[in-house]
Amino acid sequence: MSANPQWDISRALGVAKLFHLVCGVRDACVTPFLTLYLRQLGLAAPWVGILMGTKHLIAAFWGPFCAFLAKSYQKRRVLLMGSLLGSVGASMVMVLVPPLHGVPGYRSCNASDAATPTAPPPRGAAGTVTVTAARQPASSHAAGAPSPAGESSTGTVDAAGFRKAPAGTVHAAASGPPGYARTTSPALHTVTAGERAFNEGRTALPLLAGGPAPGSPANLSATQGNAQGLDLSLEGLHWTFLLSLGSLVFWELLTAPLEQVADDSLYEYLDFVDATDRYRSLWIWRPLGMSVGVCGVTALVGQLECVLMTNGPRGVLHFYGYSLVGTLALLVSVAFPVPICRRREPSYKTVKALSLVGGAPRLIVLALTVFLVGAATSAVQNFLFWHMEDHGSGELAMGFSVALGSLGEMLLHPFKATLLRKLSRPGAVGLGLGCLAAQLLYYSFLWSWWSVLPAQILNAVSSGALWWAVKASVEDLATPGTARPLGAMFQGHISGGGSSLGSVVGGFVVMSFSLAVLYQACCVVLFLWLALFLCIQPRLPQEQKINYSKLLVMEGSNTSDSEQGTERDWLVKAMREEDSE
Hints:
Blueprint: H1 9-30, H2 34-40, H3 45-72, H4 76-95, H5 138-142, E1 156-157, E2 163-164, H6 193-204, H7 217-226, H8 230-255, H9 257-271, H10 285-308, H11 316-333, H12 349-358, H13 361-390, H14 395-412, H15 416-443, H16 452-456, H17 459-477, H18 483-512, H19 515-536, H20 548-558, H21 564-567, H22 569-580
Antiparallel strand pairs: 1-2
């Protein structure tokens, strides 16, 4: 078998491990920090939510479609290498998107402001631009960025580089909108150019209404101070948003097919020689690469940002790292195992899996659960780094938080079988939902950047154990030949659709209220669904499928040769029931 390079299993598994490791490092360079880069461009939360929602939607439907075409026309290796090569070039297009004029992401690299966070928080108080900033990063003024309209310029600068307001300053009028800051304590709060343009547009466009009335005291100074630059700001915002949208769509169209094409190719390669049991052990290499890459790239960016550039968003360096590691992945993909022989299989498995979901109550409940989990998870993935940045976090701490979550999942994996056996499938799903809701509630009460780290350990249950239970439930409820298509539908279409909707809605909730309100709302929704899930689960009909191989083994061990002719009727009956479904 090893004489034929097509079936050299040891070599194929080694190349697959290296490929998944490199792809994990590549994704770690940009994916966790993409929304942070969009914020540095000056885009407010609603625009970032629309961009990320579009990205998730393309990944959910375009990737499986391309994988189907590549399998039908035997062009998997071409698509694999083309996706890697195209994503390297498309990522560089994102670097060419011009930011809004005077965004705080552009700063000098002086020693005094190298560690000072400059991007402002997307607070609900940003619904108006008359916020009086009590504490503001001094580096945003050092870079030449103009002060937001209505911002107080009085006060002193403390040793940490923040402007301190005079004592007794009141930050909001009594007639302010809901979520408007009402405090006399110092607060880290500024307004980006993108948020100003978005809020100005809200007063001019009825479609985006929701802020205070144009004549209210909270918005009067903003109208007077920015009336002359309104058209210019909106025009710059539109250009930045449209170019970001076009670049992101082009990039995702090229990147989306990669993961599913690689997984399908490797699975079929191992299936030809009955070695699919070794396929399950390869999952750990991608999160391992993500953990190593997300810490390594942030440490490297911190060292090189002032060496390679002096005036630009620091997120640009992440795209350079993505292109470099993507080129390495392209070289590895030349030897990636792709089956040459074509096995004739029905092409309607996805349609059959979809019809199976529509006719099984347990799968319907599970699909709704996965949809809600995808929507809630998008709130964390899109805006958690914004929350950490508002509390003074650097990118290295952000990267370490991602690595900590992946590490917890890898450490819990050896106990996967025991966990699913002790808790049952619905019990593990319920535990994952509860942990995810608890995480979101915890995030809404953060008091410093390091307080995020303890909650990341819960990712082992809220992400790892939850998806283990979902996959095990799908395998139990799937008919023969539909387990993989059904699992891909849950992890791709359903979860991706939830992430898309959650990103769009979450962006507008952040702008209208705050990040804390978004997390608390997601927490309430998940707890309500958890209560409903646990109530209706025992009342759903049992739909456990028959495992024919186990029954045959039991039949051969428990019956004598004289009884075999009369006791095999159960097999005929079971096959007839299977055909009638």
